[in-house]
Amino acid sequence: MSRFLFTMMPVNDLGLPTRMLPIARVLADRGHEIGVFNPAPAPMALIAEAGLNPVPMPDLPLPEPGSDMARASKAYDVDEMFAAIFPNEDFVRAMTALHIKLLQDFAPDVVVDSFNLPACLAARILKIPLVTVNQGNFHPASDGFKWWQRPRPTALRSAVAVVNRVAGEHGAGPFARCVDLMAGDLSLIVGTPETDPVADSATRHVGPITWQRGNAELPAWVQDLSRDKPLVWVYAGNPRYNGEGAALNPFDSIVVIRAAIDALGGQPFHVVLTMGHQELPPEFGTLPANFHLAAYLPGPAMAARCDLMVHHGGHSSVTSGLSAGTPAVIIPTATERESNARRMASLGAAQVVMPTPEPDGSKRVDVEEFRAAVNRVLSDNRFRSAAQGVAQSMKKYGGAHQAADRIEKFTQSRILR
After folding, report:
1. Which one of 93, 262, 309, 347 is most buried, by most CB atoms within 10 A?
2. Domains detected in the chain
3. Using CA atoms, how far apart are residues 173 and 106, in angstroms rounded to an integer?
4. pLDDT by residue for the chain (417 residues), tens digit each?
5. 3-state SS string over the chain?
6. How large is the angle between the packed helices 315-324 and 15-29, nearest 10 degrees?
């Protein structure tokens, strides 16, 4: 049996854990030794639910990252996003050292990563085989986030010079682009060529991957909601990444909650609002009578039960809805999420409502536009038919089990070298 360390960008939402934990669980069930590293609170709750081994944060000092999240949220592609997230060379150096120690302490046979640049760099430095599990627009052979804007601008910022200086201190690199680190020795794409096009014949699509315990069921109160009215599932994600009272973060999903309450409160729908193991901001007080709040519900079961999903365009939310054949109205809060939303809309399975930035950094949604989009998707069966068509095409892929098969085959080939 082999020893796998699963790493991912340690962000306090469920997008990356949702795609990684099912693969980790399959490999654990096959007898492999698994560690998972994401110390953020919401992912830790999901790691515990999956019954997997959380790897602790190495005790090393970290300087302030100096990230510009406003610029990251508008990035054209991965390199421009990393230029905004990793402008501080000392932070990149410290994060790389932290992940080197993490890998040395756990001593994996293979690192399995999703969108964690320092982890990928540490694996390259230590010459540990690397498997990457990402969505299409994170891959170097994709058209980036703003794939509808061609040609690619020529003067975009990149953190590759910073990364190469740190890599060079360890005898690794150089790399042409930061995004090149997102393609491992084995590169798996969550999704299909239809949802996540990548112009690379060596890359393997594994279909949708969503987390749900094998025996998970929706609670009785959801199952008992009357079927005479549509059920709208609003998945908010993290409303405030920086916490209550802190500076606004452009990735904040509080705009989704506000839009849902303003547009759907008192309407002839059941609205189930889930927070992804986050707290509902106290400013909302008492929710409208047709709203039902839950900290967390099993995603695949809820996507199958509802008539419509409303979310921020995260890739895991998109694939959860598509794999269940459920259409969506999407309020994307960043260009990466807009990329996913536009892909879903191009397949005929969603409507996209773009938020408008306010002078204070917050975002707002036109309530009438949003309500009209919800009513349009619910009343026009072409949206559900398109989503169900995509769901049918996704059944050709094996998801987490197919990914685990490929990882095992890759690992065995490395051992036999």
Report:
1. 309
2. 3-208+397-415 (3.40.50.2000), 220-394 (3.40.50.2000)
3. 23
4. 999 999 999 999 999 999 999 999 999 999 999 999 999 999 999 999 999 999 999 999 999 999 999 999 999 999 999 999 999 999 999 999 999 999 999 999 999 999 999 999 999 999 999 999 999 999 999 999 999 998 888 889 999 999 999 999 999 999 999 999 999 999 999 999 999 999 988 889 999 999 988 878 999 999 999 999 999 999 988 999 988 766 789 999 999 999 999 999 999 999 999 999 999 999 999 999 999 999 999 999 999 999 999 999 999 999 999 999 999 999 999 999 999 999 999 999 999 999 999 888 889 999 999 999 999 999 999 999 999 999 999 999 999 999 999 999 999 998 766
5. CCEEEEEECCCCCCHHHHHHHHHHHHHHHCCCEEEEECCCHHHHHHHHHCCCCECCCCCCCCCCCCCCHHHHHCCCCHHHHHHHHCCCHHHHHHHHHHHHHHHHHHCCCEEEEECCHHHHHHHHHHCCCEEEEECHHHCCCCCCCCCCCCCCCCCCCCCHHHHHHHHHHCCCCCCCCHHHHHCCCEEEEEECCCCCCCCCCCCEEEECCCCCCCCCCCCHHHHCCCCCCCEEEEECCCCCCCCCCCCCCCCCCHHHHHHHHHHHCCCCCEEEEECCCCCCCHHHCCCCCCEEEECCCCHHHHHHHCCEEEECCCHHHHHHHHHHCCCEEECCCCHHHHHHHHHHHHCCCEEECCCEECCCCCEECCHHHHHHHHHHHHHCHHHHHHHHHHHHHHCCCCHHHHHHHHHHHHHHHHHCC
6. 70
**Residue 96 corresponds to which tokens in the numbers above?**
């790389």
- Residue 407 tokens read as 């990882």
Nearest in space to 253 (alpha carbons), one of 293, 339, 340, 311: 311
Token pair for 186: 């084995």
Give the separation between CA 343 and CA 348, rounded to whole angstroms. 9
